[in-house]
Structures are given as C-alpha cells and as structure tokens.
Design goal:
elongated, 1 helix, about 210 residues, single chain, 5-stranded mixed sheet, mainly beta
C-alpha cells in the first residue's frame, strides 16, 4: 500500500511562466476652445473733421484671440448697417462706405464723397486672410503686411480678416484701423453731428 501511495503523489511542474504582463491604455479627450482673450475696445477717432473744408481722422482697436484648435481659427467682421457710419441725431446722414466690400484695395483712394473704411494688421503676418496681404502695389497677392496697405469698405455681409492655421494657446493679436476722409465741399454735404458705425467680430475654430 505504501508503494502505491508514493506512485500517485503529484509533482510540481517546472514548465509554467514565472510572470505575465497585461498592457492597456487610458484615453482622455481635450476639446477645442476659443475666446477673445482681449476684446476689441470702442474706437474714438483722433480728432474732429470740419464738414465743409474737410479733413482726415484715424482710429485703431486691437483684439487678442486665444484658441487651442490644431487647425487654427478664423475671424470675420460685419457692420450693422449700409452705409455703416451714420449720424447719431437723425440717422439719415451717412458717410459713404469706402471702395469695395468684396476685396480690399491697395492704399486709400480719394473720392468726392466722405468715406469710411478699415484695414487689418496681425502680429503674425501669416494669420491675415490673403485678401489683406499685398506685394507692395496690389492686395490679395504677395505675402507682405504693409501697415495701411490694404483698405476695405465695411459691409453687413461677414468678411474674413483672419485665417490662422495653427493654435494660439497664449493668444494672437490683431489690429483694425479705421479712416474717415471728408473732402473739401463733400457731395453729399454732411450735417454737423457725431457719426457712428457698429462692427461685430466672430471668431470660429477651424
């Protein structure tokens, strides 16, 4: 009986692995966001213009957009009325929208009418929509960002001014400059008044 018991005794196998591994992943989505880190401030032009003998005034505002989108973002501007700049007292008097509302023109062209227009510059030239880039003599061509080079007429239809293709995690700066030019004895004549335009910026992740 003793010999039979010893023959049936189980033995320890030496073929089993001494350790094993199990690899897995942890996944977390981070979504894109966009905001005006610094909103555009209201603009007061740099001086009064005489309504009969004429003159020129300028004003500038700056805004900073912050976005973590890998594809960058766009900024469009639209104005609340046509013409955009109107008298505050009666709202019947207005300044003519400058030039074209479909593409900027290089430099600011004079007219027999009082005009209101804008131009755009960016801290990173590549951020500008190609419409505001120039080659020193024409807009929507070349790769230069000459200050005061490309001027645009305001429109109620949103117009793209920024087309950035990379994130701006700490913010990217854009400046919008405005010009009012009143020629001597403008046609139509302008009544004494304050004239105001309202613009809306829309920033969108790509």
């Amino acid at each position: 009986m003793t010999l039979l018991f010893m023959a049936a005794e189980p033995t320890v196998s030496r073929g089993a692995a001494a350790s094993t591994t199990d690899e897995f992943t942890i996944r977390q989505q981070i979504t894109d966001e966009i905001s005006f880190l610094v909103p555009a401030a209201d603009v007061t032009m740099n001086g009064a213009i005489q309504g009969v003998t004429g003159g020129t005034a300028h004003g500038t505002t700056t805004f900073v957009v912050r976005s973590n989108s890998n594809s960058g973002y766009t900024v469009d501007v639209a104005f609340s009325g046509t013409p955009a700049m109107r008298g505050e007292t009666t709202n019947s008097q207005s300044l003519r929208n400058y030039g074209s509302s479909s593409e900027p023109t290089f430099l600011f062209f004079a007219s027999s009418s009082a005009q209101f227009g804008y131009t755009v510059n960016a801290s990173t030239t590549a951020d500008l929509d190609p419409s505001f880039l120039d080659n020193g003599s024409a807009c929507n061509v070349g790769a230069a960002d000459n200050v005061g080079g490309c001027w645009m007429g305001p429109s109620t239809v949103p117009f793209r001014i920024i087309n950035r293709t990379t994130p701006a995690g700490t913010g990217a700066t854009t400046s919008m400059s405005f010009r009012v030019v009143v020629p001597s004895s403008p046609s139509p004549a302008l009544d004494e008044d304050f004239y105001t335009a309202t613009a809306t910026l829309t920033a969108t992740n790509q």
